[in-house]
Amino acid sequence: MLDFVLMAAAEDGERPFPEPVVGALQRVVPCDTVAYRAWSSERIVDRSFAPGEPDARWKVWEEYPRFRDDDPHPSESIGAGAAPDRTGQPLVLSEAISGRSFWKTGLYFDLMRPFGVRDVLKLFLPRQHLSGTASAFVLDTSARAFTEDDRTLLTRLVPALAQLQRNATLRAAPPGGDARLQLLTPRELTIVGRVADGETNQQIATALFIGVSTVRKHLEHVYEKLEVRNRAAAAAVYTTAVPRARLAP
Questions:
Q1: Which terminus of the chain is more solvent-facing, meaning fewer CB atoms within 10 Å of its CB: N or C?
Q2: What are the backbone angles phi and psi of residue 172, rounded to the nearest 5°?
Q3: What is the pTM of this model?
Q4: How far is CA 45 from the centre of its chain?
Q5: For strand 44-50 and strand 91-92, is the pairing parallel, antiparallel, or unpaired?
Q6: Under DSSP, is residue 236 helix (H, G, I), strand (E, B) or coil?
Q7: What are the angstrom distances between the C-alpha of 43 and each of 56, 124, 188, 217?
Q8: Element at 155 (helix H, strand E)
Q9: By 3-state DSSP, what share of the chain in percent is helix, strand and coil, each rounded to 5?
Q10: Residue pLDDT, tens place only, 200-234
Q11: At what angle do helices 19-28 and 2-9 cross, to 10 degrees?
């Protein structure tokens, strides 16, 4: 689990969970496939799949909206996010509906049965107010049912997963009209974004899974590049260039 978190924390792109990171989660919770999907009120905004990205599987799962009503834990509902009572709770399909009833549904017959999927586990992440998206991890297995240990591991990962999503959103924050922000690295942009949101060095270090001394060193570089003397001035540069709505926790 620690290896997964450290690998994900090292990402510096705009996507929080690209394919290699999703593949690492498969080693935390053994299963056949892991998918990450994020959606806004209008469209699917991101998706990753491990292992690989077989065209046949994507073609079938693109039909999911047709069978969403068969899913006891529906996701990717355009225009709506994950319900609050499901957020952060690993949800196992086989515990929500009897096998006899589920085997009669189109979701099972058309989408799961062709790949021998026996059970599905979903984890809805906290809604991202920064980007206006909802998201979920979807794990499926053909070999066994998901266990209490699997759910416990995913539950323990939820705080880290939420921080990783926020870090990615801050890295992607538009620098607006201030050219100085374009000089910052993705990590520095993440840190100054968190400074602008009022976080302490310790809070930032925890969120980025680095040491406090490393945060201080990054801030020194930020001050130099932004031509400011302290965190208040750096935060002012950031909040002036980036709409405040992007910073809401």
A1: C
A2: -90, 0
A3: 0.86
A4: 12
A5: unpaired
A6: helix
A7: 22, 17, 30, 39
A8: helix 148-171
A9: 50, 15, 35
A10: 999 999 999 999 999 999 999 999 999 999 999 99
A11: 170
